[in-house]
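pinging the channel bc i need a second pair of eyes. not urgent but kinda urgent?? the chain im working w is below, pasted from the shared doc
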Amino acid sequence: MIYYTLGDLEQLLGLKNYVIRYWEKEVPLLQPHKDERGKRYYVNRDLQILFRLKYLLYDRHFTLEGARNQLFREVSGEQQNLRAQIAALRSDLVALYELVKGKNSSAIPKKL
């Protein structure tokens, strides 16, 4: 299983860490693992939720409450097969990003 730190999420999402931490408090679907010192580690599911949340807030102009409600509807909704395919594609893209980042991090744009 791949774990992402808060710094990794900052780069992948193009957001500041305090925004991600705030969303974590407001959206119970986000549940990062914390080590004994309190350092957060996010899994792929958290990353997918954050990508979707960012889209709903910044592109679709939802309020945070509206975006949270939409996420809950989507998690319990009917289009699970399509969501699974999108999640698999997004996972592949993140894995590719990690691969390229390891080889030549200067070639990757700061915002995805």
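so The chain has one domain: 6-107. and Residues 2 and 26 are 24 Å apart (CA to CA). — does that match what u expected or am i reading it wrong
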